Amino acid sequence: MYIGEVAKKTGLSIKAIRLYEERGLITLPPRKGRYRYYNASHVEILNLIKEAKSLGSTLSQLEAVIVYDNGEVDWPKIETFLIKLKCQLTQQTEILKERIGRVDACLSAINSCPTMLDSTPKGRE
């Protein structure tokens, strides 16, 4: 498939796809005449890149992870990266839960304050 179709399938811009080629995140597709011709594995990697970026990964991080051996992606390396990313996100979730608990404690303290009991705060009417 040509780059326009890949862009539609992945939701990436043509410019982004070309950038990922330049940075070595996807292999250069073979040419059909004057045009590059992409296959399903290109789409698969591009979707992975898009998803990883949406989870906070940078292109520099992905460059270290998405490596090729004789034109084939090193999937075990990507799997290890994704497991580490999941751990990081889990830790961030725990930190956010703890912070939400602290905010709730502050709200509880405010709501039990004697001066708060005498007046209705704005927005709670």
Describe this structure in words.
The structure is a single chain. By secondary structure, this protein is mainly alpha-helical. It contains six helices and four strands; from the N terminus they run ααββααββαα. The chain has helices at residues 3-10, 14-22, 40-54, 59-65, 75-111, 114-118; strands spanning 31-32, 35-36, 68-69, 72-73. The strands form two sheets. It has a two-stranded antiparallel ribbon with strand order 1-2. Strand 3 (68-69) and strand 4 form a beta hairpin.
Structural topology:
Layout: H1 3-10, H2 14-22, E1 31-32, E2 35-36, H3 40-54, H4 59-65, E3 68-69, E4 72-73, H5 75-111, H6 114-118
Antiparallel strand pairs: 1-2, 3-4
